[in-house]
Design goal:
The protein has 77 residues and is an alpha+beta fold. It has helices at 11-18, 49-71, and strands at 31-37, 43-48. The chain is flat and about 50 Å long.
């Protein structure tokens, strides 16, 4: 639940943040970071929300694996 008292939002803006206008909005891919390189023509390198979540799961999984193997939680043989 979002604590609305800390935000200075009007009622229409509040409805925009809390209610999706379409059920398909949850599957939209949005750019977090975008880089356009004119070296290779119109080459665009971007990090989307899907790529960010993939990297986040990868880092958390690898971090758990490294911590577990060093602490001896996972036997080596």
């Amino acid at each position: 639940m979002i604590n609305v008292r800390n935000f200075n939002l009007t009622k229409p803006m509040l409805n925009h943040f809390l209610v999706a206008s379409s059920p398909l909005e949850q599957f939209e891919s949005t750019n977090f970071i975008s880089l356009t390189a004119p070296i290779f023509g119109d080459f665009v390198l971007s990090l989307t929300n899907v790529g960010f979540y993939t990297l986040l799961v990868l880092v958390l999984g690898l971090g758990y694996h490294v911590i577990a193997t060093r602490a001896g939680l996972v036997p080596s043989k």
